[in-house]
Design goal:
11 helices; 70% helix; globular
Amino acid sequence: MNLLTQFAPLLLQGLIGAFIVFVLLWALQWIRRDAGWVDVGWTAGVGILGAAAVFQTQGWQPRACLVGTLILIWSIRLVAYIIKDRLCSGEEDSRYQTLRTYFGKKAQLGFFFFFTSQSLLVVLFAIPLLPAINHPTPHWTLFDGLGTLLWLASMGGEWLADWQLTRFRRNPTNRGKVCRQGLWSRSRHPNYFFEWLQWVAYCLIAYNAPAAFLSLLGPIAIYLFLMKLTGIPHVEREALRKRGEAYAAYQREVPIFFPRLFPIPKT
């Protein structure tokens, strides 16, 4: 727990700063009637807080800079994707439309608490980065290399999955159909799988570091959020509602998260 004590002031500053930013983003969603800005807030917040931790590390600086760079790249790519493919689409994400309906007349009050509560997520997802950032071993290790390679492969996989889905959706002939192209023939949510795998990479880099167990919080938390809370359950419900039996068949034939190694044989 000495690690958390060391970074406690930074985490507290991050919590306060994130709260202020989320209040501003809440006001922006009120004006634009698009709660998708909350995703920009927590993604950017984790990247900024993770990078800020590099300047307070007592570990080996080159490794800390590597981890800070990786989380910043992740943050910038995801923020750009959210803004371009979601916020610029002109339609609020169906998750937040559902939430807006649920809140009813108290929607803005409900969204205020929803937005500001994301401040805790910014801190939660910054904590798993700290063991790798503060790793004291004064040279590169095998696990640094393995973690970096896994991160690069995961980032490439997530980008490819997003690109394949975007290309599929932009083809008018695919309207109402289920994307089964490329990575989407191996997993129903390959983008989420590779997102999860990136957090596993930080566990490898943190191997043998003090309080390395905290790095496990990343893949555990992201898996639970994706599988049980905000990610996959809603996407699956909406896909069934919109595509019916076509998506039900997709559910029967393709794994939900972990990709199948080989495609379904064609009959």
